[in-house]
Amino acid sequence: MALGQDEEAFGHFGATGSYALAARRAMHEFNTGPETWQHIAVGQRKWANLNPLAMTYNRTMTYDDYMNARWLVEPFRLFDNCLVSDGGRAYIITSAERARDLKHHPVLIAGLGQHNPAGYPQSATFLAGPTGARIAGETAFRMAGITRNDIDACQIYDCFTYTVEITLQDYGFFKPGEGADWFRGGTIEPGGSMPVNTSGGQLSEAYFMGLTPITEGVMQLMGRCGKRQLGPQTGTKEPEIILCSDNGGILQCNTTIILRRA
Predict the structure, then answer these.
(1) Is the pTM of this model over 0.90?
(2) What pLDDT, in 10s, does the model give residues 106-152?
(3) Catalytic residue among 19, 157, 162, 171
(4) Is 157 a catalytic residue?
(5) Structural domains in the chain plus CATH codes
(6) Catalytic-labelled residue, pool 19, 162, 171, 207
(7) 171 in active site
C-alpha cells in the first residue's frame, strides 16, 4: 500500500494501521468490536491446539488472555493480528482425470470468483463493507451451483480478526450488526456448526499469505488433518464442500474458491 508523504508524520504506516481504520469504522456502523473478535481469536486458537504444526500448538487462549493483551493499533490487540512466520506451503493443480490416479482422494475446484473494489484505503467507503467478498462469493457460488447452506466449513484469509468477520458478513452468513450473535457460543470452534480456519489460521497456525486457507481446505477434504480433522472426532460434519478466501491490499480485493470432495 502506498502512503502519502505526510501520513507517516502522523503515525500512520503499515497494514495494521489501515485495517484498524476499517475496523474502527465497522465498530461505528455494525456495533462490532473486541467483544465479537474475541470469539474469532479464541475459536481459531482452539483449532491450533489440535494442530502439532501450529506455532501456538501448546499455547491455549482464554477470553481474558485476549482482552488483557497489549494494544498494537487501537482497536486491535495483539491477538487480533496474524503471526509472523517463516516456512512454506504448496498445492498442485492438475486435471480431474489425472488426480483420480494419485495417492490421495482428489479435491475439485467447483467455483471461483474474484472482485477488486480497489481504491485509496483512507478515503474508500467500502472498507466497512461490502468488500470484494460479496461479488467474488456470488460469482463462485453461481459457478459451483450451490448456496451458502451447502458450505460445511470456511477457510478465511485472516490477517486480522476483523477480516474474518467482514468477509463472512459479505458472504452473507450473517447480516451487518449480527456478527456478535453469530460467533457467540462456539460457532467456528471444534464442535461448532460452521468451522472456520481449522488449522488455526494465520492468527494461530502460521502466516503464509493466501495459501494458508487453500491448503487447509484441500487437506480437510482429503481427510489428512489428524486430530483437527472435521467429522466425528471434532464434533463437526464430515466436509464435502469448503469455501476458501484470499484477501489483498487493505480489503481491496478478494478471491473466493469453493472446493468440493470428488
Answers:
(1) yes
(2) 999 999 999 998 766 666 666 777 899 999 999 999 999 999 999 99
(3) 157
(4) yes
(5) 8-261 (3.40.47.10)
(6) 207
(7) no
